[in-house]
Amino acid sequence: YFFCKTFVKMLLCFILMFLLPFGQATLPLVINTWPFEHATAAAWSALQAGGSVLDAVEKGCARCEADQCDGSVGFGGSPDERGETTLDAMIMNGNTMEVGAVGDLRRIKNAIGVARAVMERTDHTLLVGESASVFAENMGFTAEDLTTNKSISIFTQWLKDNCQPNYRKNVSPDPSQYCGPYKPGATLRQRRKRQIDIHAHDTIGMIVIGKDGQVAAGTSTNGANHKVPGRVGDSPIAGAGSYADSTAGGAAATGDGDVMMRFLPSYLAVELMKTGTDPSTACKTSISRIKIHYPGFFGAVICANTTGHYGAACNKVPGFSKFTFVVYNSQSNSPLLQSVDCF
């Protein structure tokens, strides 16, 4: 009898191991894109100090902005066609469904902080460009030069390469000026194909779920290298860059924002979790929807539900077959690197 009873318990445990979603459930939870462990730790510390989930998202993303995570977040990276670094960010409160976001932000290093100010100090959702920068200065944020020696070097080399690669299509430059001005017409030369750079990670996307299931999410990025001035990607768009709903969970995306934002992958993933879909499957379904139209796109999504389960998915393309993200919960006791095979 004892043997049978023990065997049944072991069998049940074995079955549960395979039925549970990617991450084991425990709250509170911090999860973010890419191996940005210092950002994860900063968010967790904010929670442990008694901060809210919004505080944790803001602190985590701000740490990445200050650290210039892989050159793809914060100042001094991804200069546009004029050599200027501009920032995009958003933050979302899953309890109230409020969102604050900024796009094409200039002169202000703490983009996620400005996004939160938009949410808490205005009735608006998104401010962009010079007006967003003026708003930030009015709110007490310090105006600083976002250019660094590194961003100047990136821009200078791009000019030497005849402004290749770039994001222009179906236009031709002045024949004497390879870098424009551009006018409608047949391209005079084949654009050099942009190669996927796994070290240009585009975005930190972060989800924080409190001990009682409250959810917040946020993103921060300096966008795409050599983007057309004024370009805003997916990161500050609610439902694209990230999304939070305390009745279901949160999601955040990273990758080719110009493609991904067309499908609102974060919103889709959260809506799927609301119907009971586990996070890993929700992420994979979200990626699959994009693949139907853009099979070669570069991107990934992280998901977490209000029980503390989490997962991720990514599109497999040459040079990108595995996606790394970071998790911090009471079981890990430190930022824990996790990875998922792309499909």
From TrEMBL:
GO terms for molecular function: N4-(beta-N-acetylglucosaminyl)-L-asparaginase activity; peptidase activity. Substrate binds at residues 231-234, 254-257. It holds the Pfam family Asparaginase_2. Belongs to the Ntn-hydrolase family. The keyword Transmembrane does not apply. Its EC number is 3.5.1.26. GO terms for biological process: proteolysis. GO terms for cellular component: lysosome. This is N(4)-(Beta-N-acetylglucosaminyl)-L-asparaginase. The active site is at 203 (nucleophile). InterPro entries: Ntn_hydrolases_N, Peptidase_T2. It is an enzyme of class 3 (hydrolase). Cleaves the GlcNAc-Asn bond which joins oligosaccharides to the peptide of asparagine-linked glycoproteins. It catalyses: N(4)-(beta-N-acetyl-D-glucosaminyl)-L-asparagine + H2O = N-acetyl-beta-D-glucosaminylamine + L-aspartate + H(+). The lineage of its organism: Eukaryota, Metazoa, Chordata, Craniata, Vertebrata. Keywords: Autocatalytic cleavage, Hydrolase, Protease, Signal. Residues 1-25 form the signal peptide. The record marks 202-203 as: Cleavage. The keyword Aminoacyl-tRNA synthetase does not apply.
